[in-house]
Design goal:
383 residues; alpha/beta; Quinone Oxidoreductase, Chain A, domain 1; seven-stranded mixed sheet; 29% helix
Length: 383
Amino acid sequence: MRALILDGTWDPRPGYPLTDDETRRRRARVASQVWRHPAAALAEVDDPPLADDEVRVQVGACGVCGSDTHCVETDEQGYLRFSGPTRLPVVLGHEYAGEVVEIGAAVTAVAVGDLVAAEGMLWCGLCEPCRSGLPNQCVRLEMLGFSAPGAFAERVVTRERYCWSLAALREPLGDERALELGALLEPAGCSYNGLYVAAGGFRPGATAVIWGAGPIGLAAIPVALAGGASRIWAFDPIPERVALARAMGADDAFDPADGDPAARILEQTGGRGADVHVECAGAAAQTFPAIERCLAPAGKVIYLGRTGERAPVEADRYVTGAHALVGSRGHAGGGVFPSLIRLVAAGRIDLGPMITARFGLGEVLAALERSRARTDGKILVRP
């Protein structure tokens, strides 16, 4: 089958504390500290074998994530920019939906012909975090498309427990639309997990600011609206994404260079500030000082962006204002996928306006190249 293979050079940075496990498995905990000179190419590969608890999925749609882009971009020393766990070579792609075409002998919850969306956080289910309801913090976590074979391919194999039925979308919308919206559940799931699972939600009527209008930030807008946010602002330096934020339901969206963002929020809230701030830009060194100046009392900051860098935090503000700073990773557990499927099926969330470009699998390298401009919402790769 055809698949997009990412490879690179194992060359840990001087001073990086490489563990024995990383050396033995050639699996970096922090890819940007170990893997250098990445190269991606479309190639013919063998279909992986199927274990008893696994299913084979014919990929119907797979989104291009900013993390995928970070895997083909490098810093000045040639190290890839992605900061998560990675084992190369690997098939890229993790935001996907498709049709089940084969099932293992022990599979009972999924049938051939089902349309499914699947989690990309491959939790073990046995470690203490998993058994305590924290699958995104699994100590044996593998990540589809980074440390396990991904979905920029004709087919992908995954365990049945990571799959969620799209039957509720298939009947009213048809297969094509269900598959496209199913592929958007992963980025929307990161926003949902951050807002409602990791941060515990907010009271209806709360005000929210989305910092960064990439796919996760764009998805956070309707996800927050579904929870009762009364007003939402978004900031992004790219004009196309400012427009997309408005299309996704933001009341106002701005380029942060067009005036002081914190001053704008304070002015439009009568000096109170906003209750919920979702950092999706991965630019905490730039966004946190502004966020902290316009946090409402008992406000929440939810950090979804990743940079692998330190950022300034004025801790006394969190004491004085009774604020909370919450980090959130992933989309597994917490009822995230089934909740989003029900919201989309009920018409409470419309993720469709995020889709701004479609490419065939044979054009996947062009899709990755286009993603580097960061002007799109969600780029989909279709068969």
